[in-house]
Specification:
Blueprint (H helix, E strand, L loop, with lengths): L1 H15 L2 H16 L8 H43 L14 H29 L1
Helix pairs in contact: 1-3
């Protein structure tokens, strides 16, 4: 079931991001707007577009969130493997599960370390010159 859903979700997300899909949707809106005078701009006429767009938006939110979650998990796994297999510090593996404040603290430490490394490189260049 999960593989089937993933295949369908990927196909719909891929199709939804194509220019042709946008053109089709814009065309539907134009046809709806042009048909307004034909239906006297009735409540039913308005309800059709409102209901249709609400349903599509509701479903697309979950579909997009699903694809984003999978993409994010795959990216984190790839980064974790790069960290694990390199000389990088292994304590960075899994930091996506930390709180915002914990991540901010690590980010500041990384920035400070990068700044110190840059200063040390500048001093080494000046000493060599």
């Amino acid at each position: 079931m999960e593989k089937h859903f993933t295949r369908i979700a990927n196909a719909i997300a891929y199709a939804a991001g194509k220019p042709g899909t946008f053109i089709l949707c814009a065309g539907i809106i134009i046809v709806w707007a042009v048909s307004g005078p034909l239906f006297g701009f009735s409540d039913t006429w308005q309800l059709i577009i409102n209901t249709g767009t609400t349903i599509i938006t509701f479903l697309m939110v979950f579909l997009i969130q699903n694809t984003q979650n999978r993409d994010s998990a795959a990216l984190q796994t790839k980064l974790d493997e790069l960290i694990r297999s390199s000389k990088a510090k292994n304590h960075f593996i899994g930091i996506e599960h930390l709180t915002e404040s914990e991540l901010e603290e690590i980010r500041k430490k990384c920035e400070e370390a990068a700044e110190r490394a840059g200063e040390a490189a500048e001093e080494a260049q000046e000493a060599a010159a």
